[in-house]
Amino acid sequence: MLNQTLDKTKTKKNKIEVFGLGYVGLPLAVKLAFSGYQVIGIDTNPERIQRLDQTNLIESELNFKEEFLTCKNNGNLLFSTHSQKNENSKIGIICVPTPIRTKDIDPTIFVKSTIEKFLETSKEGDVIIIESSIEVGTTDEMKKIIESKGFKVGQNFGLAYCPERIDPQNKKWNLENIPRVIYCSDDITYEISLQLFRFVNNSNLYRVNSPKIAEVVKSFENAFRLVNISLVNELAILCDKLKINVKDVIRAASTKPFGFMPFYSGAGAGGHCIPKDPIFLLESSKKFGTEFKTIENALQINNFVPKYISNSLENLFKEFGLDKKIILCGMAYKPDIEDMRDSPGFKILNELIQKNFDVVIHDPYFKEELTEKYLKENNLEGLKINVVRDLDDKSIENFKGLCIVQTHTKTKARLEEIYKNSLIPLIYDCQNSIKNDFNSKTILKLLGD
Ligand SMILES: NC(=O)c1ccc[n+]([C@@H]2O[C@H](COP(=O)([O-])OP(=O)(O)OC[C@H]3O[C@@H](n4cnc5c(N)ncnc54)[C@H](O)[C@@H]3O)[C@@H](O)[C@H]2O)c1
Predict the structure, then answer these.
(1) How far is Cα 424 from Cα 221, in angstroms, rounded to an integer?
(2) Are 180 and 284 contained in the same domain?
(3) In terms of domains, do 298 and 174 share one?
(4) pLDDT tens figures, 390-447
(5) Atom 20 of ligand 1, nearest CA residue
(6) What residue spans of 38-79 are helical by DSSP H?
(7) Is 21 in the pocket of ligand 1 (CB under 6 A)?
C-alpha cells in the first residue's frame, strides 16, 4: 500500500493535509501547493480559516503572498476546519502547538487530537509526518494510537517525525535551505518524505534510526541555544559590574577560530521554542530518574534577566530622581516579527508595574485588538496594558525613561533620533545597540556595559 502512496506522491496525485496553519504550517502548505500538490490547510481556529479564505494575510505571511495567491487561485490550496475523506492516499503533516506539561495539560494534547481526527478518515497507505516539537516518546505513543485503529505502522501506514527548525526572520537560513532531521517508520515512508521535501528544502534530510533520537535532537538544539543565551546574559550582568562592554568581550572571544560560537546578550530568550523545548528534555530526565541541571539553571537565569533589568531601572530612576514614567519598546520576542509569545518585554512590564511604574508599551507589531491573546500567551491575564502608537515628540514628552527591549528595523532610526536629540531623560538599552554620543543629554545605560 505504501508503494502506491509513493507512486502517487511522485505524480502528485495524493492529497496533503497540513494541520495547524501558524508560523510553521502555513508556509509549508503554501510551498507544497505551489509545487503542484493538492493541499488542504486545516486549522481548528475558524477565524484563521476565514482570514486565509479572504486572503487577509498578516505581516509575517506577506513574503509568500504571491505563491499563496497563485495556488489559492488555481485550486491547489484550500482551507478547512476538518480533515476530509479522499479516494487516493493522504499525507497528514502535523504542525500544531505543543504546550508545556502541567498538572492539567498533556503536551501531546493537540498532536494526539489531530492524529485522531486524521485517522477518522484514514485508510491503508496513508502517511503522517509530525513536525511539531514533541516530548521524547511521543512518536511511539502516536504509533500505538494509529495501530489501535487496525493499521500496521511501517507496513501499511507510514509515520515520520521531522522536527521543524525554522528561525523566523533569519535572512540566511529559511525553510528552503535548512537541513532537517527525520525519523521514518520504514524505507518507503522515507522515500515519500524525500519526494515531498524536494519542494521544501531540496530533500536535505538527515535520517536517524530511532524516533527518540529525532525527538531529543529537537529539544537539545533549543537547549543549546537557551544555555548559551543564558550564559551570555549572565556575562552581561557581570560586565555591568565590571564596567566593560559585553559586546567587546564577545567580539574579542570570537577571534578564536575553534571551540567558540558568539551569542549576544539581551532581555532573555522568548517565543514558542527556545524557552519551551528544553523543558521536554528536563521532563524526560525526571521521568528516567536523572537530572538536567544545565537546562534548569539556564531556565532560571532566563527568568531572572527581566527581573534584573527592572531592578536596574528602578535603581537608575531613583539615582537620577526621575518620576517613574516609562515607555517599554519592543514587545515581540525578537526583532521584526509580530510574535509576542513568552516574551521578555511582558515580563519586564509586569515587574515594572509591581514596582509602581507608570508604563506604556510601544511595538509597531502590537495589535491592541489582540491584547487579551498576548496576555494569555504570557500568563499575564488581567494585566492592564497602555499602548503608545507613535514615538513622536508629543507622545513621549511626559515620559522620563525609555527601555529598549527589542529593536525592530521599523523603530531603530527613531530610537537613535530620540537619543541623539535628547528627547527623553533616560534610555536603558537591553540590546546594547545604541552608540554612546557625548553630545546627547540623555542618560544612556546599556545592558552589559
Ligand atoms: N514558530 C516557530 O518558529 C517554530 C519553530 C520550530 C518549531 N516550532 C514548533 O512547531 C509547532 C507549531 O508552531 P507554530 O509556531 O506554527 O504555532 P502557531 O501557534 O503559530 O500555529 C499553530 C496553529 O495550530 C492550530 N491548531 C491548534 N490545534 C489544532 C488542531 N488540533 N488541529 C488543527 N490545527 C490546530 C492553531 O489554531 C494555530 O493556528 C509547535 O510545536 C512549535 O513548537 C515552531
Answers:
(1) 41
(2) no
(3) no
(4) 999 999 999 999 999 999 999 999 999 999 999 999 999 999 999 999 999 999 999 9
(5) 22
(6) 46-53, 65-73
(7) yes
Q: Is the CB of 170 under 6 A from ligand 1?
A: no
Do 202 and 310 have their domain in common? no
Ligand 1 centroid to residue 283 C-alpha, Å: 21
Task: Work out whether the CA dihedral 45, 25, 281, 351 comes out positive or negative.
Answer: negative
Which of 41-55, 70-84, 99-113, 211-225 is predicted least confidently?
99-113
Which conformational region is residue 34 in: left (phi greater than 0), alpha (psi within -120 to 50 degrees), or beta?
Answer: alpha
In this structure, which long-range contacts are made by residues 304-308, counting pairs with CB atoms below 8 Å and at least 24 apart in sequence? Answer: 305/233, 305/237, 305/267, 305/268, 305/344, 306/267, 306/268, 306/344, 306/347, 306/348, 306/351, 307/347, 307/351, 308/237
Q: Which of 273, 329, 403, 430 is catalytic?
A: 273
Q: Grid coordinates in use for 372?
A: 487579551
> Which pLDDT belongs to residue 64?
95
Ligand 1 probe mutation, 105, 170, 272, most atoms within 8 A of CB:
272
Closest to 17 measured CA to CA, from 119, 91, 78: 91
Length of the chain: 449
pLDDT bin (cut points 50, 70, 90) of residue 334 is very high
The reply to whether 241 falls in a domain is: no
CB-CB contact of 27 with 58 (8 Å): no
In angstroms, rounded to a whole number, what is the distance separating the alpha carbons of residues 53 and 71? 12
CA of 69 to the centre of ligand 1 (A): 22
Task: Name the residue range of residue 132's domain.
Answer: 2-210
CA 277 to ligand 1: nearest atom = 43
From CA 349, how far away is CA 328, in angstroms rounded? 7
